[in-house]
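tool_call: predict_structure(chain=1)
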Amino acid sequence: MMPGPMGAETRAEAARLGAIFEGLGAQAVDTAILQPADVLLDLYGEDIRARAYVTADPLRGEMMLRPDFTVPVVRAHMEEGGDPARYCYAGEVFRRQETDPERPIEFLQVGFEHFGGDPAQADAEVFATIAEALAGLDLRPATGDIGILMAAVRGLRTTEARKAALSRHVWRPRRFRALLDRYGARVPLPAHKKALLAMKDPFEAAGPVVGLRSREEVRARIATLRAEAETPPLSEEEVALIDAILDLRETAPNVLSSLRDIAVDMPAIGDAVTGLSRRLDAMAARGVDVGTLPFEGSFGRTTLEYYDGFVFGFHHATRADLPPVATGGRYDALTRVLGQGRAVPAVGGVVRPELVVRIREGRA
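tool_result:
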């Protein structure tokens, strides 16, 4: 019988992983299964509704079955914890599955979170700890750094509105690509938008207002569209440099060399590239074979939207259909949001213990 996502074998594996994390000084914590939906909706937008279970409480309003542990752990740390700190946890998380009925909607998640300290050293510690905990399994590591892409966007020679829009959609690759192509004048403005912007008064031949937006709100939106249409396009050079970052797919040392070349023409990514170099040195000092470590410029852009730096995952080497066995990354900006302006460096990772059991026993 295949080990279930909540069975005895899975719970035993969760306990093994938890003991490893506690052995590094991590404090074991727990969080409520029902979380305030407004916090998660503010962070992720309405997209989270497609991936989580939402219910209503007559006193507390909308509540959400815990989709992961990171957000509640960060909230608790920013309210009560002191830096540096390490936490670990194990418990159920809940994810809606609308396209794959074979994937569980409830499963155990075991995690390790690190707050404070030197970012490069903390990144290396979390990655190496999870790699060692999964040693002996037929897994393929993957790494990336969303911070490099975000730094490139911040450095573009364009309006703050455009940079904000691109930054907001970093985790939506198709939307990000559509915006980049539009801002770079790679695609023409749609005919209906051209016609709308050409009207002196869009309401001149319009009927009564229908919907929730007032005429003033519609006029303000049209003014924004006109300002955007009059903004000069991104240079072809800058768009090509963004494309070069997204297309990176090599071993980490080779990627580092390519990024140093890109930084000559795009100095805004310089600090992020230095951070990558320091992280690789810290990983090597912990025994990670960085010479063969894969790096992808787009890795981590379809996960939950709080990673803003180093990202990593461990996948089955031959079963691409399986979910990742472990994922993680850096989320400094999340601490600033939940800390009401106070931020601390933070990085963490989670493991799916039922997948560890399946792979170890050759049942994957």
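agent: The mean pLDDT is 88. Proceeding to next step.
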